[in-house]
Write a structure and sequence with these properties.
Elements: H1 2-21, H2 26-43, H3 48-67, H4 73-83, H5 90-114, H6 116-124, H7 126-133, H8 148-160
Length: 161
C-alpha cells in the first residue's frame, strides 16, 4: 500500500511537470524505480527479481516506441519505473492500457489539431497521410501531448483491476 501511495505521488508530480514543460525529469523516474525496487526487496525478498524483470522487459518493449518516435525518452523511463510496481501478468495489463488509451488520446489530439478529415483519410491513403498527420502545419513540428497523463491513468487502472 505504501508503494502505491508513493508511486501515485510520483506519477502526479510527473504529470504536472510534463504538462508545464513537456519533459519528465530523469531523477524523478530513476527515484521511482529505486524506491520500487527497495520496497519490493524489503517486502518480498528474493521475489524482487520478478519486478526487475517486469521493468527490464517493459524498457525493451517501449524503447521500440521511442525509436519509431511514438514516445519520448522520458515517457519510456517513466513507464519503466511504473512497471517496477507490477509483475506479470499485471504488467501486460499495464502495457495494453497504455497502448489502448494512448492511441485513443492520440486520435483525439489529432482530430482536435487537424480535424476529423485527417483521421478519415488515413484509412484511404495511409502512407501519404501518416506523415502529415503526425506533424503540425506550423514548421512541421510533431504533434504531441503530455503522455504522462496516459501513463498515470493506465497505472491507476491497473492497480485496481
Amino acid at each position: 500500500m505504501f508503494l502505491y501511495i508513493i508511486t501515485s505521488a510520483f506519477l502526479l508530480l510527473a504529470v504536472i511537470i510534463d504538462i508545464r514543460t513537456r519533459r519528465i525529469p530523469n531523477p524523478l523516474a530513476l527515484s521511482l524505480l529505486i524506491i520500487s525496487i527497495i520496497s519490493h526487496s524489503i517486502t518480498v525478498g528474493a521475489g524482487v527479481f520478478e519486478y526487475l524483470l517486469s521493468s527490464i522487459i517493459t524498457l525493451f518493449v517501449f524503447f521500440i516506441m521511442y525509436v519509431i518516435r511514438f514516445l519520448g525518452a522520458g515517457d519510456v523511463k517513466l513507464i519503466t519505473a511504473a512497471a517496477a510496481t507490477f509483475t506479470f501478468p499485471a504488467t501486460y495489463t499495464f502495457w495494453f492500457l497504455i497502448l489502448g488509451i494512448g492511441c485513443l488520446f492520440s486520435i483525439i489530439h489529432v482530430i482536435k489539431a487537424r480535424g476529423i478529415r485527417s483521421v478519415l483519410f488515413l484509412s484511404v491513403t495511409p502512407f501519404q497521410t501518416a506523415k502529415r498527420m503526425i506533424t503540425s502545419k506550423e514548421e512541421d513540428e510533431p504533434l504531441s501531448f503530455p503522455f504522462s497523463i496516459v501513463i498515470a491513468f493506465s497505472w491507476m487502472v491497473t492497480i485496481y483491476v
